[in-house]
From TrEMBL:
It comes from Lacibacter luteus. InterPro entries: Homeodomain-like_sf, HTH-type_TetR-like_transc_reg, HTH_TetR, Tet_transcr_reg_TetR-rel_C_sf. GO terms for molecular function: DNA binding. PROSITE patterns: HTH_TETR_2. Residues 31-50 bind DNA. The lineage of its organism: Bacteria, Pseudomonadati, Bacteroidota, Chitinophagia, Chitinophagales. This is TetR/AcrR family transcriptional regulator.
Length: 205
């Protein structure tokens, strides 16, 4: 019997369906049958392309991460001023994670298991975030008296935590604040502007 050749269009169909299911149910709540139903194929065909849910999730995750990190590095390495970089960082990160909300929590879970292996696999040789130029730029702006004295490291941690935390704490925020999916998404859309405005106001002279 001739070996079946995998078709890229079918694989793309499966990946697109998996993204939708993972967004709705997360990695742990999703089932292979859910993904097969969303793709309009039978479960046997799904298993031919991806033998497990974990394998499928990893593929979807890697594609999303590969989309995000090069853009973040392009922002860090650009010749934009500090304020513009802060604005672009928040906008880009929130845009990608809104479409791939499983990213932050999955990273936190996996990185706690085997940090070195996971981050090496996640970033590879080209995608590792490198904020060196941005942090040097902040230090220079402080020395020139253009912004208030602040540790570049502390600003970087503030920036990252303010962007990421709401996605990680989404279930808690939704229950405690009574937010449905639309309200949570709307709040995160607002944070594209709210976070940069808050940080810039804190460092601007």
């Amino acid at each position: 019997m001739a070996k079946r050749v995998k078709d890229h269009s079918t694989e793309d169909l499966i990946l697109d369906a998996a993204r939708k299911v993972f967004v709705k149910k997360g990695m742990y709540g999703a089932r292979m049958q859910d993904i097969a139903d969303e793709a309009g194929i039978n479960k046997a065909l799904l298993h031919y392309y991806f033998t497990s849910k974990e394998m499928l999730f990893e593929k979807v995750f890697e594609e999303a991460a590969a989309h995000l990190f090069p853009k973040i590095n392009a922002i860090f390495d650009s010749d934009d001023d500090v304020y513009t970089k802060i604005e672009r960082f928040c906008d880009e990160y929130i845009t990608v994670v809104l479409e791939n909300p499983y990213l932050p929590l999955f990273v936190m879970n996996e990185v706690n298991q085997d940090p070195e292996y996971f981050l090496k696999k996640l970033w590879g040789k080209k995608n590792k975030p490198n904020p060196t130029k941005f942090m040097q730029q902040l230090d220079e702006e402080v020395k020139k008296g253009k912004i208030k004295p602040i540790s570049p490291l502390q600003l970087m941690m503030n920036l990252i935590s303010m962007v990421i935390f709401p996605f990680v704490a989404k279930p808690i925020l939704q229950v405690n604040l009574g937010l449905d999916e639309f309200q949570f998404r709307h709040a995160m859309e607002q944070r594209r502007k709210e976070i940069p405005a808050f940080i810039i106001a804190a460092i601007k002279k």
